[in-house]
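Q: Given only this backbone (277 positions), what sequence would you predict?
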């Protein structure tokens, strides 16, 4: 079995979030996929096999500790891998809970990829989870940017978004992994998305992923899509696109671009480059 290692949402030939990619004629059983993901050790490993229709692929995602319903950076990595194997194109993906697509294009050693997320939704976050999350990171309500209220955001998976009004407070993010795991599993969160709005269209983000046993993701495409959908719901002046810089505080700068159609709830296109590791 060949396991490709691809960094998604890279900054040219550096940075990005590594994902394992396994493509085969059939998927291993769940316990085998879980073991492979744990052995690879990246925040996610994606598994894909050909589907029943031409150009369709059946896809599953596993973190080192659990299966997740959707992972953006692993989807970008899969798009890059399929472009290498099948040639440039758009690939339809059948996930456990959604039908999406990813496009992959090669240009020398750099491959660009763009995913179409599942539909988006957002809802006001209950005070209980907000207080628990602020306590986890040592923040308080005065640290929050009230123009972007705390919310549960979704584009295939649930994330709690907390918008900070100071970039320095974002860079100081720290927490206990076990406490974070307990909080995220208690409230059904895949990650907590901590963001800072530098401008209306440029955001800095950090994404603790304790639910999957990972302290922090350097790039999170699922959270980027969910954030874009939430900004649309808020009536934020995004002008149809946002850019997200993530991983810079980890020394693994990643660049994510999201295109936001006007219609509420519709799929977000999230794109970036990928590099073979």
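A: Predicted residues:
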């Amino acid at each position: 079995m060949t396991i490709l290692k691809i960094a998604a949402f890279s900054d040219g030939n550096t940075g990005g979030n590594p994902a394992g990619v396994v493509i085969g004629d059939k998927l291993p059983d769940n316990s085998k996929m879980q073991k492979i993901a744990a052995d690879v050790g990246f925040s996610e490993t994606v598994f894909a096999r050909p589907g029943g229709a031409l150009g369709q692929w059946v896809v599953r995602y596993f973190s080192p500790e659990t299966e997740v319903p959707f992972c953006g950076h692993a989807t970008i990595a899969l798009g890059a891998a399929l472009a290498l194997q099948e040639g440039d194109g758009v690939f339809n993906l059948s996930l456990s809970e959604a039908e999406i697509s990813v496009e992959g294009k090669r240009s020398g050693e750099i491959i660009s990829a763009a995913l179409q997320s599942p539909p988006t939704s957002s809802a006001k976050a209950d005070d209980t989870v907000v207080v628990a999350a602020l306590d986890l990171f040592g923040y308080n309500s005065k640290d929050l940017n009230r123009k972007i209220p705390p919310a549960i955001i979704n584009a295939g998976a649930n994330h709690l978004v907390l918008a900070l009004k100071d970039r320095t407070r974002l860079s100081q993010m720290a927490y206990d992994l076990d406490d974070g795991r307990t909080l995220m599993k208690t409230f059904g969160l895949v990650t907590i998305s901590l963001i800072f709005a530098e401008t209306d269209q440029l955001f800095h983000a950090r994404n603790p992923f304790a639910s999957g046993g990972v302290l922090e993701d350097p790039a999170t495409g699922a959270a980027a899509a969910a954030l874009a959908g939430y900004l649309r719901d808020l009536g934020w002046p995004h002008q149809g696109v946002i850019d997200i810089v993530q991983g810079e505080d980890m020394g693994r700068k990643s660049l994510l671009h999201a295109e936001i159609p006007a219609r509420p709830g519709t799929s977000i296109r999230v794109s970036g480059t990928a590099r073979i590791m």
